[in-house]
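Sample pair:
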Amino acid sequence: MCIAVPASQLAAPAEHGTLVVRHGGVYTGSYRSENSAVPCIRIDTTEPVTLQGCQLEGAGTLIEATNGGAQLIIRDCTGVGLLPSVDNKPHGRFLEVNSARSVRIENNEFSHTSGILIYLWGGDGSAQQTLTVLRNVVRNADGRFRNGGGTFATFIGLNGVRGLVNAEIAWNQVINEPNNSRVEDNINFYNSSGTAYSPLRVHDNYIYGAFPYPATDASYTGSGVTTDGDGDSALTTTAYIEAYHNQLVATCAAMNIAAGHDNSFHDNRIVSSGLLPDGTRLKTGYAAIAIWNAYEKPKEVFHSNRFDHNTIAFYKEGMQHPFANRHDVNVEACTPCTNTEHLPNPITLQTEQHEWDLWQHKLQAQRASIGPRVALAPKPAPQKL
């Protein structure tokens, strides 16, 4: 079932209940789909489109722009993922877009979706035709199936998005609750890149949580931010990603450079106590930071990556890097990882809480307004599977 209650500047007829946008303009309204195969909004034009103040609820993808050439702004919208309508299907994405020319996602709030997927890129390489993801509030990236099990989900994933200029992912707040989410890498760059003179900037984000489902499972590989991809050349691999001033809390692994070249992660804060909020000890956990050539590419493809000046306190039972039960730096796979500041033991839930307090002070100091800036109707209570 789809229910469309449009209130847009440009009228757009619903097709099977979906708002189908065929002309440029500004659109708003409330849209709901209970069918995993039917999006709430489908963009079917290459003209500039703004979705402003929309309220979306869907079992499938909330906003779909997969025909190529989209010029899209999504601003001050809310999105809630509903229970999938079929088995073996995850929650839909907040946004799925293919070969876009420009995408700007700012001051939105979305929960229980499988995040944002940016696949390939159709821009002209200018600073205007770029990707911008700013000041969003995200809760519970969720790749779970309704009948048990699940698949990968992210806050945002880029796949084959190469040569972006002036791209930015910043001032986003992402919180994944244990046993109420199923995220893999919160941010994943797969065969995607900025440029040598304009790196893709990932900065001043707060990311809490990368837990298996159930949270006490012993097998899991999720992280905060990871460079990834099997590209065979310097042009097709992940490159020119600069991640700085981020806070990563309670993640199974925090930051990985597993592919590419000229990726720089510096001046971030990473804290993980290895505990669930109720004090239960997690069975998963690896290292806070690591650099390794996961796809075994030649030196022309994998080179010039670095971690520098990061502040870390990362619990890993049985390890001792640098203190007892710590794995702040993967000493077997982290060259170069330099000038790391190691916070003292013990690492507790209060240590993690301190990072949240720092984030709140940081938002206030910068007068940063995150999430929708318009009065919206009450949102449904968080769902439980």
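Residues 1-16, 376-385 have pLDDT under 50 and may be disordered.
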